[in-house]
Design goal:
Elements (H helix, E strand, L loop, with lengths): L3 H6 L8 H4 L20 H8 L22 H13 L1 H13 L16 H10 L5
Helix pairs in contact: 4-5, 4-6, 5-6
């Protein structure tokens, strides 16, 4: 099982936990050695140029740039981190993983239809309603 530090490194600037989704490394490990202006991901480039750890630290969140925040799950993950903190987000994701609420392709978080439901699923697991 991964520890919190590994998971923290696996959270992308947009709030996704890439290592759970498709087994890839975090975007934090990619693009090393190239100029920030050349980074393809809008959210990573913007956060790095603004000296932010992620979109959750940005006063402009949710912005209309990029397309990640059209996804209710992604937008709610960032809002959750902004309100509850990244350590609480990791704790909730891990607790839910252990209780069978999977993160990744065809996951439980994509089966709910509102940000409130995503927030409740993070906080309370399957028994949120």
């Amino acid at each position: 099982m991964m520890d919190n530090k590994e998971i923290l490194q696996g959270i992308g600037y947009c709030g996704l936990v890439c290592m759970f989704c498709n087994g890839c490394d975090s975007c934090r490990d990619k693009d090393q050695g190239i100029q920030v202006e050349e980074i393809e991901c809008y959210h990573k480039r913007c956060a790095m140029m603004s000296d932010l750890n992620g979109c959750w630290e940005c006063e402009k969140f949710p912005c209309s740039a990029g397309n990640m925040f059209n996804n209710i799950r992604v937008r709610t993950f960032v809002q959750f981190i902004k309100e509850e903190g990244i350590e609480t987000f990791i704790k909730c994701i891990m607790k839910n993983q252990q209780n069978g609420i999977k993160y990744g392709e065809a996951n439980e978080y994509d089966k709910v239809s509102t940000g409130i439901e995503v927030f409740e699923l993070l906080n309370k697991g399957k028994n949120y309603n």
